[in-house]
Write the structure tokens for this entry.
Amino acid sequence: MSDHYFEFRKVCKAFGDNDVLKDVSFFVNQGETAVILGRSGVGKSVSLKLLLGFLQPDSGQIIVAGKDVTAWSEKQFSEIRRRVTMVFQSGALFDSLTVEENVAFPVETRGGAEEQEKAEQTVSDLMKMLEVSQFADRLPSDLGTGMKRVVAIARALAENPDAILYDEPTTMVDPIMAAHVSDVIVKLKAQFKKTSIVVTHDTHLARKLADRVIFLVDGGVGFFGTWQELENSKDPFLRNFLAQDEMIPALDASA
């Protein structure tokens, strides 16, 4: 049996005349964290949506939890989405629910009284671990973008999934909050060892997290390997990408 929890096999996806993904192949093993890097518009977020059936590939195969889900129906994907959760850029929180109610939402209807008590303890423990307990009674509209993402991560973990997908978790937030969100994700990797894929522009976060790096370039995989192998690459495009990103914190600091 393969150790691959996620796998793309020659996956293609186009939107009109725009070939976003062209024969993309990669894999992520059970318990690993993979980071998808690349410029804007190269198909990073599209790849996550394909894994969960929010989009369908034009060709190729997609494997999730050892199963070929390429032609699955929406009903079939509903089961996978309980095992694989996604943290969206927007947070996708329920505006009318408090922070605590949002985190509890995936587990609030499970089982009898004993199961409900366990669920409540799980929610309480997660909120303490992710340092959002003080916001328990607030609505999402009262939170900044970064804190919404932390709450969304707590909600994703409350489901006790096999795997978590993160879509640009540190984008569009200030550097201090981005560092906090990064620290949360790194801590969760160490503690829970969930299979994860992180889509990001943030090479500082990628360096901390990546067991594997998938670098998308012009619709294809320009690099697939470890972070150390990426840093040692002689490819001019990859070296330029990493060099430019290293300049960003300095630019932010002087702003």
